[in-house]
Amino acid sequence: MFEDIPVEVGLIFEGERIRKEDMQVELGGPKVDKKFEIVLVKSSDEIEDGKISVIGPDIRDIPQGSHVRLGILVEVAGSRLEEDLEGVLERRIHEYMNYIQGVMHLNQRYDIWIRIGKKSFAKGLDSFIYIGKALERLYRSELALIEKIQITFLTGGENFENLYTMARERYEARDARARGLSDEEVETFYGCALCQSFAPTHICVITPERYANCGAISWFDGRAAARMDPEGPIFPIAKENCVDQEKGEYSGINDHAKKRSMGEVNRVYLYSAFGYPHTSCGCFEAIAFYIPEVEGFGIVHRRFPGPTVNGLPFSTLADSTAGGRQIEGFHGISLEYMRSRKFLRADGGWNTIVWMPKEIKDSLTGFIPKDIAEKIATEADATDVQSLEDFLKKTGHPVVEKWPSHTDNLDKDDEPSGQEQGSSYTHRGQSPVFVAGELPITTGGVTIILKNAKIFAEKVIIRPIDKEKKGGKK
């Protein structure tokens, strides 16, 4: 099936990671402003079956180590194909490209991030034509509904901008269709296991009001996918009993999570980042992260280039969020979920959001409640926790009402002085001041590793070490 492709193609390579030092070229990704992948259903006479085109420089023409734009356009036709299936077929690009040895595909839609490994390039994987052939054959072999297919890769060309704009408009049209339906109106949710090769204990639950974390699959897409391919990676989940309506806990989801994660995940809250938050793989569009100093959430998407308001960049926050774990206060989400009426409902919804990049805030105009919108800081208003506190006080953000006064939390006898000079931080409330997937502590010649650590403290004092008291020299 793949004899004319210079590298192997198969499930064994799904989940393969290509590090920067092993990369021949990077396509899309955080250093590139525009990239996209889209599937369009066309009429049969609009498609030249089996045609694979490359517009712009091919892989062999791109200097090693470069970061370049990429657009992937897959056009399909079939008597039983409908536009409703476009999003479902589109998400298969992620799955199928990861079958190719030496190709790493992450994310979706306008956020694709692809790397070609040096070893596979040396074996001859030096053209998009080979990747196109693998995609074409995998689509045909797994989805009999496809009768014709043509694929175009764009790294340049006059039409790139037009296709990018068209793709963004198409994504928005799909998303808007699902916004009128509520979780209470349906009896079945859907699960997606496409990313379990990267996060074995993760199952993405898709409801009318909670899009897939990747932002690519709506409830309608999930329903269409399950009907199209009953044995495929997207499947129905019966809601069964509602255990907690506010948090979004359902017995059917709990049972399915326990089964699919082999007992690692037993409970799931759809609408909360605490307790038993929905798991994440690594393809989430954004992260909701708790900022204990102000008792509110920050939001950051993967395109944000610098450190967030707590000093950590997206990549560091993602390490605490991904992997199929349930880490309280770290929640992988889609941008569409932020338009939902159930968005972090159990945690206070929009009244608990305190910071987000301006790009996200602008894109959500009309969805953020008017009475809170001007009270949410962006990078233009706050770049660290102190300036965030000042902004929230100035604007009268609802979280400020939860803050006790500083003097209520700090006794004079506890203030550092003299040899104890340093910095102190008094936590407001009972939420953890530190959360980590793994926290190593070295003492007495041994290393203790705390798994899924949550540390609570009324106060943290940082003091310089007095070496004379330790028997050393200053």
Q: What would the principal axes of the Cα set say about the shape?
A: globular
Q: What integer value in Å does the Rg equal? A: 24 Å
CATH architecture term of the largest domain? 3-Layer(aba) Sandwich
Spans of 5+ residues with little confidence (pLDDT < 50)? 406-431, 467-474
Tally of alpha and pi helices? 11
Number of strands: 21
**What structural category do the secondary elements indicate?**
alpha+beta
Oligomer designation: single chain
CATH topology of the largest domain, what is it called? Bifunctional carbon monoxide dehydrogenase/acetyl-coa synthase(codh/acs), Chain M, domain 5
CATH class of the largest domain equals Alpha Beta
Tell me the CATH superfamily of the largest domain: Bifunctional carbon monoxide dehydrogenase/acetyl-coa synthase(codh/acs), Chain M, domain 5
Q: Write down the domain tally.
A: 3
Helix content: 10-25%
As laid out across the biggest beta sheet, the strand order is: 4-1-7-6
Q: Major beta sheet, specifics?
A: 4 strands, mixed
How much of the sequence lies in strands comes to 15-25%
Instruction: Determine the N-to-C terminus distance.
Output: 70 Å
Q: How would you state the average pLDDT, rounded?
A: 87
Describe what you observe in this structure.
The protein is of the alpha+beta class. It folds into 3 domains: 11-177, Bifunctional carbon monoxide dehydrogenase/acetyl-coa synthase(codh/acs), Chain M, domain 3; 183-402, Bifunctional carbon monoxide dehydrogenase/acetyl-coa synthase(codh/acs), Chain M, domain 5, CATH 3.40.1470.10; 419-462, no CATH class. Helix content is 22%, strand content 23%. The protein has a 4-stranded mixed β-sheet. The longest helix is centred in the middle third of the chain and has 18 residues, at 160-177. The chain is globular, with a radius of gyration of 24 Å.
